[in-house]
């Protein structure tokens, strides 16, 4: 089965993102913003975990599909696990992406402390082809309000995502998040006046995202 863009527009699909993306047309989305598993076997204080955070089998095929369905001369922004930077970069480059920017999301709290206190998240800006420069490029350091992680163990704050969509996605464009979790990217897309497609493998988080968007 192959989905048309209109069938998927402003919907959240439950399932393996690789399989769902394989059913999507090539060059059909305007911007990708995603927060994939960091490959660190993460568990929060209450024991919640992330699907496929214990293996990298999905890494290269997922980014290969993202590259295929992203329109030519367009951008993607991907969070990543800093301890696995080399693996993410290899997957991005193997898919065809060029790295054109890096963003630090500054926290007012430490999510963890070891040799240093972890007070930031990071993402890379990835290009397919030669995108035009944005009229109002976002800063490469963005404040990261605490979401409380109530809906998802690594829930991203909408306020930190919306400026990226406003800068990198055309008005009324289509934003894809293949690892949409509780749906923060999708909420940010609607706030930025864009359409969205979300994919989430975990049934519980898919349900949370669907209810969040319906509200």
Fold and architecture overview:
- The chain has 215 residues and is of the alpha/beta class.
- It has one domain (5-214): Vaccinia Virus protein VP39 (Rossmann fold, 3-Layer(aba) Sandwich).
- Helices cover 29% and strands 26% of the residues.
- The chain has seven helices and ten strands.
- The strands form two sheets. Strands 1-10-9-2-3-7-4-8 form an eight-stranded mixed β-sheet.
- Helix 6 links the parallel strand 9 and strand 10 (195-200).
- Helix 3 (59-69) packs across helix 4 and helix 5 (158-168) packs across helix 6 (184-191).
- The two termini are 30 Å apart.
Give a topology summary.
Layout: H1 5-8, E1 11-14, H2 17-22, E2 29-34, H3 59-69, E3 70-79, H4 85-95, E4 98-106, E5 112-113, E6 117-118, E7 120-128, E8 141-143, H5 158-168, E9 174-177, H6 184-191, E10 195-200, H7 203-214
Parallel strand pairs: 1-10, 2-3, 2-9, 4-8, 9-10
Antiparallel strand pairs: 3-7, 4-7, 5-6
Helix pairs in contact: 3-4, 5-6
Strand content: 25-35%
The description of the largest β-sheet is: 8 strands, mixed
**Topology-level CATH name:** Rossmann fold
Q: Order of SSEs, N→C?
A: HEHEHEHEEEEEHEHEH
Structural class: alpha/beta
Mean pLDDT: 95
Shape: globular
Give the tally of structural domains: 1
Q: What is the CATH superfamily?
A: Vaccinia Virus protein VP39
Alpha plus pi helix count: 7
């Amino acid at each position: 089965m192959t989905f048309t863009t209109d069938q998927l527009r402003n919907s959240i699909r439950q399932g393996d993102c690789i399989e769902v993306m394989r059913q999507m047309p090539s060059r059909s989305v305007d911007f990708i913003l995603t927060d994939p598993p960091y490959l660190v076997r993460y568990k929060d204080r209450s024991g919640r975990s992330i699907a496929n955070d214990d293996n990298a089998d999905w890494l290269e095929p997922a980014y290969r599909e993202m590259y295929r369905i992203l329109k030519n001369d367009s951008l993607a922004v991907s969070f990543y696990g800093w301890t696995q930077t080399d693996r993410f970069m290899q997957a991005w480059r193997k898919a065809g992406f060029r790295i054109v920017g890096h963003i630090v999301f500054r926290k007012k709290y430490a999510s963890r402390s070891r040799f240093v206190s972890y007070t930031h998240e990071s993402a890379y800006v990835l290009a397919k082809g030669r995108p035009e420069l944005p009229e109002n490029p976002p800063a490469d350091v963005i404040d990261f309000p605490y979401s409380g992680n109530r809906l998802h163990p690594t829930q991203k704050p909408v306020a930190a995502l919306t400026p990226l969509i406003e800068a990198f996605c055309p008005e009324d464009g289509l934003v894809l998040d293949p690892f949409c979790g509780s749906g923060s990217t999708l909420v940010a897309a609607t706030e930025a006046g864009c359409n969205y497609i979300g994919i989430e493998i975990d049934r519980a988080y898919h349900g949370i995202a669907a209810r969040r968007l319906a509200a």
